[in-house]
Specification:
CATH class of one domain in chain A: Alpha Beta
CATH superfamily of the largest domain in chain B: NADH-ubiquinone oxidoreductase 51kDa subunit
Number of helices of chain A: 19
Strand order of the largest sheet of chain B: 6-5-11-8-9
Structural class of chain A: alpha/beta
Helix content of chain B: 40-55%
Shape of chain A: globular
CATH class of the largest domain in chain B: Alpha Beta
Distance between the termini of chain B: 35 Å
CATH architecture of the largest domain in chain B: 3-Layer(aba) Sandwich
Bound molecules: flavin mononucleotide, iron/sulfur cluster
Number of strands of chain B: 11
Strand content of chain A: 5-15%
Strand order of the largest sheet of chain A: 2-1-5-3-4
Distance between the termini of chain A: 43 Å
Oligomer: heterodimer
Number of domains of chain B: 2
Radius of gyration of chain B: 21 Å
């Protein structure tokens, strides 16, 4: 890459060839407003807010879409630019249901921010909203789509297509009628939408938001007859701070637990506990499948085995690769294992009627809301998880409680399903489930720790969309002699577009593996659809670093060493994949339509 | 007094039974010679934007790529334009020959004709003609094939980059430029896209040489052009006329004696009122047109004319970019509000500023040209907008 020099508002800057004017301006410390632009997506250039004056050009140019050339002279502040910017914002507002106090994104809306910067007083143009007949899709348990808030920037459409290869959202009609819609304009719950919420993460306004259950949770908390239990997912603790005054990559585990106590939850427990439990069940399942394949030569055993913790991935495979459903681990996700145990094991131990337990989970995820609603997820005899809140919703509750989060003291999780290991924390990052499973499975089979420095299986970590790693199994314990010399082949993918590519490789026979981890969201759960907004590669990297720091700081770093795990098997479950486990912790999924 | 009178020309529609002879002759010449002729002729695109055709071909020829394409834009969506249909009906082989010559110069092996959806009835005929043409090419040992693709009735798919998207099976939304088609067009490859008529002129320049072509027209607008004449005229139809004519002379020949305005260039063109006929030149130095000339006499309400255009744009905008999608709605609703007395006449000035913003802020030529008819009609017929 060669260096070039351009001038913006009289300031000369040297930049890499291939960068856009918008990127160059950022480097020069000049803020150009934008809406349709998003770092994770291909450039659209459709909102026209980022227009600038380019010397020699007849028209204004969209700075997000214009590559900088050597010697270019750009002005971001001319009369034409100002008038165009104001016109564009006014036009967007004229099509927009700007009843901001009734909007879920009030105070967090990019259009509202621009309006407050550029619009003074009266609107210039006619209000077009009354003639629009906008509709709201509220029938999905995870995501609400409100067309009256949409500014048609297509960030969601590009997210769904480019990052997720799902294309549940697309553009329908043209001209004044143009809108973001679905196949046959069906409701989101009827189409291929995976509920991953990546679109929600990138929507600049309130057009796509999570379905919120904050009020239901407050009601439960204030109900004296209810025992409200909360579980927190691994990735929440490394991102929650972003909503509450910390920079990206700050771990706030202890503060979060204190805040949950202050909010009034009766018991603050950890999804990390069931992440460890997942490793016990899933690791055992993998070893059984390998035995059936290698020793019993059973032709019906499905390999590779796929992880099943990511509910976005589950719905994706149901729609897109249903012929591989038998390859999914039968393990429920840690959230749902937790839910099933709270209303059985935990209820027994605490001597509480499960009918009076309200089980809440805090997740980095919107798909978990859908997952909790699945008919498969009622094995306790009740709805195993009653309400799922995103990281963002928890932040809202903390703010509503009036807590000064920045200065909060740390607390520890409560007991019975509150203990966890570093192996569970890393579930929050892509490659983490794989790493956790290998730490345990390798040790079960060989009696030795995985042969990586400080247990850090770095080949499965990182940000590339697809990664492969293999471990040679040597000097096994006698019971596992059949695995002697086997090269255990694994692969990891995150973001459904990468998952799709990986699946196509497997399907074409180009690749074969024993164990594959797939997470629906870019970066894994730390980049989940319920995490703080904004998101970008840099923020996700910082969250990942925080996750691995948290792992390094845990006294125990292997799931099978979690003392509460030993206790639950002794007292309740018996053994991994035992009868009780089957009843509560495992499930099967069904094929769905491809469109 | 204008020194020039209208000159009728007959280049496009003359039957050229011996087109294979023209091709044979042209194929034997070095590319640089042919290209120089096209450049020298001063031929500019007849689809509206008027980009010099020789330059377009040269830029594409200069690109390194295995796959390049020649595309004939036969979407003919501009209201009041109906000449490409006639060309493709009467002299299709001249269009194909223009494409083949272009293919030779730029190094393309495939060509496409993107035909307006409503012209589906022409499909079988064109395909039959293509079969014959391909045989001619085979005899000349020139490896080039032309395929027909049907549009689906969206005006925006006539815009070149939206047309590529449509041909690639995607939604017809214009792309960001740069990159331009000569660098990255159909399937991301270097592509020449020309109007039907442009391609015929290119072929005819190869036949008759650039001199004869250059003699016609004015400095900035060489040659002649096919016009679609409609509206309040006793002789509506298709006419090939020399470029650079004065509108006054045109109205003398085509008007009904009561012409109050001429819309030059269709809905996306300019409206010229009677008082400006005498100093308006039709051509790139004056008011350009893709071919449409629509005459209005004094029985017409210019308010309704503008309302009709705006209804068209409000529906035919692809809808992706803000100034065009919402701007069209605001202009339409805005003049309606003024007409009904819900907004005062000063609101028209606000709308003119908006139309001006649309011109330089929209992503593609559609949104950029809505202001042409809007500003010219509202400023010249302001009274009719209000009362
Ligand atoms: C909205 C819109 C519609 C257009 N429709 C047509 C069309 O129907 N036919 C055409 O030849 N060019 C059309 N154009 C112009 C093309 O984008 C392009 O400039 C032209 O095909 C180039 O050919 P030329 O250089 O031979 O004129 C349209 C442009 C716009 C912005
Ligand atoms: S100017 Fe109009 S037609 Fe062109 S890209 Fe924008 S919305 Fe689409």
């Amino acid at each position: 890459m060669s260096k070039i020099s351009i001038k913006i508002d009289g300031i000369s800057i040297d930049i890499e060839e291939g960068q856009t004017i918008l990127e160059a301006a950022k480097l020069a410390g000049i803020k150009i407003p934008s809406l349709c632009y998003h770092e994770d997506l291909r450039v659209a250039g459709n909102c026209r807010v980022c227009l600038v004056e380019l010397k020699g050009a007849r028209n204004l140019v969209a700075s997000c879409a214009m590559p900088a050339n050597d010697g270019m002279e750009v002005s971001t502040n001319t009369h034409r630019v100002r008038e165009a910017r104001k016109h564009v914002i006014e036009l967007l507002l004229s099509e927009h249901n700007a009843d901001c106090t009734k909007c879920y994104k009030n105070g967090k809306c990019e259009l509202q921010n621009l309006a407050s910067e550029y619009i003074v007083g009266e609107h210039m143009f006619l209000d077009l909203v009354p003639d629009k007949h906008y509709s709201i899709d509220r029938y999905n348990p995870a995501i609400v789509k409100d067309d009256s808030r949409c500014i048609r920037c297509q960030r969601c459409v590009r997210t769904c297509e480019q990052l997720q290869s799902v294309s549940a959202l697309g553009v329908a009609y043209k001209g004044a009628a143009m809108k973001v819609s679905t196949f046959y304009e069906n409701e989101l719950f009827e189409v291929v939408c995976t509920n991953c919420g990546q679109c929600v993460n990138r929507c600049p306004t309130g057009a796509l938001v999570e379905k919120t259950y904050i009020d239901e949770v407050w009601d439960a908390l204030y109900d004296p007859n209810k025992h409200v239990v909360v579980q927190t997912a691994p990735a929440v603790r490394v991102a929650l701070g972003e909503e509450l005054g910390f920079g990206p990559g700050q771990r706030v585990t202890g503060k979060m637990v204190t805040a949950l106590k202050r909010i009034g939850f009766d018991s603050i427990l950890d999804t990390d506990f069931t992440a460890d439990l997942t490793i016990m069940e899933e690791g055992t399942e993998l070893l059984r499948r390998l035995k059936r394949a290698i020793v019993d030569k059973d032709p019906n055993v499905s390999l590779p085995m796929f992880t099943s913790c990511s509910p976005g991935w589950i719905k994706f495979i149901e729609h897109t690769f249903p012929e591989y459903l038998d390859n999914l681990s039968t393990c429920k996700s840690p959230q749902q294992m937790f839910g099933a145990l709270v209303k059985t094991y935990y209820a027994q131990k605490r001597n509480i009627d499960p009918a009076n337990i309200v089980s809440v989970s805090i997740m980095p995820c919107t798909a978990k809301k859908f997952e909790a609603d699945r008919p498969e997820m009622r094995s306790s005899g009740y709805k195993d998880v009653d309400y799922v809140l995103t990281t963002r919703e928890l932040a809202t509750m903390i703010k509503q409680t009036g807590i000064d989060f920045l200065t909060l003291a740390d607390s520890s999780y409560d007991s019975i399903m509150g203990k966890s290991t570093g192996a569970a924390v890393i579930f929050g990052a892509t490659g983490g489930v794989m790493e956790a499973a290998l730490r345990t499975a390798y040790e079960i089979v060989t009696g030795r720790e995985v042969p990586f420095d400080a247990l850090n299986i770095t080949p499965v970590r990182g940000i590339e969309g697809m990664r492969e790693a293999s471990i040679k199994i040597e000097n096994t314990l006698p019971a596992w002699g059949f695995l002697e010399g086997v090269e255990l082949k694994t692969a990891v993918a995150h973001g459904l577009a990468n998952a799709k590519l990986l699946m196509e490789n497997i399907h074409a026979g180009a690749k074969s593996y024993h164990f594959v981890e797939i997470m629906a969201c870019p970066g894994g759960c730390l980049g989940g659809g319920g995490q703080p907004i904004p998101t970008n590669a840099d923020i996700r990297k910082k969250r990942a670093e925080a996750i691995y720091d948290e792992d390094m700081n845990m006294p125990l770093r292997k799931s099978h060493e979690n003392p509460e795990i030993s206790i639950i098997y002794e007292e309740f479950l018996g053994e991994p994949l035992g009868t009780k486990s089957h009843e509560l912790l495992h499930t099967h999924y069904k094929e769905r339509l491809r469109y | 007094m204008n020194e020039k009178t209208l000159k009728r020309v007959d280049i496009i529609f003359t039957p050229e039974k011996n087109y294979n002879e023209v091709l044979e002759r042209t194929f034997r010449r070095p590319n640089s010679d042919i290209l120089n002729d096209i450049l020298d002729s001063g031929l500019r695109g007849r689809g509206g934007a008027g980009f010099p055709t020789g330059m377009k071909w040269k830029y594409t020829a200069d690109q390194e790529s295995e796959n390049k394409y020649v595309i004939c834009n036969a979407d003919e969506g501009e209201p009041g334009t109906f000449k490409d249909r006639q060309i493709l009906t009467q002299v299709p082989y001249k269009v194909f020959s223009g494409m083949a010559i272009c293919a030779k110069i730029v190094g393309a092996k495939e060509g496409y004709i993107y035909l307006r959806g409503e012209y589906k009835y022409l499909q079988a005929e064109i395909e039959e003609e293509l079969n014959i043409f391909h045989q001619t090419l085979d005899k000349l040992k020139f490896h080039f094939r032309i395929y027909l693709r049907m549009g689906s009735g969206a005006y925006i798919c006539g815009e070149e980059s939206a047309l590529f998207e449509s041909m690639e099976g995607k939604r017809g939304e214009p792309r960001n430029k740069p990159p331009y088609p000569t660098v990255s067009g159909f399937r991301g490859q270097p592509t020449v896209i020309n109007n039907v008529e442009t391609l015929v002129y290119a072929m005819m320049i190869c036949d008759m040489g650039p001199e004869q072509f250059k003699e016609l027209g004015s400095k900035d607008s060489r040659g002649s052009k096919v016009f679609s004449v409609s509206g309040d005229t006793p002789i509506a139809g298709i006419y090939e006329l020399e470029l650079g004519m004065h509108l006054e002379n045109f109205v003398e020949d085509f008007g009904d004696g009561d012409t109050k305005a001429v819309q030059v260039g269709g809905a996306s063109g300019f409206c010229v009122p009677r008082k400006k006929f005498s100093d308006t030149i039709i051509g790139f130095e004056g008011v350009p047109t893709g071919g449409s000339m629509k005459l209005f006499n004094s029985s017409r309400s210019m308010y309704h004319v503008l309302q009709n255009y705006l209804e068209f744009f409000e529906e035919e905008s692809c809808g992706q970019c803000t100034p065009c999608r919402v701007g069209c709605q605001q202009l339409l609703k805005g003049i309606e509000a003024v007409k009904k007395g819900k907004k005062n006449s000063a609101y028209l000035d606000r709308l003119i500023r908006l139309a001006t913003t649309m011109k330089y802020a929209s992503k593609c030529g559609l949104g950029q040209s809505v202001g042409n008819s809007f500003v010219s009609i509202v400023t010249n017929f302001r009274e009719e907008m209000i009362y």
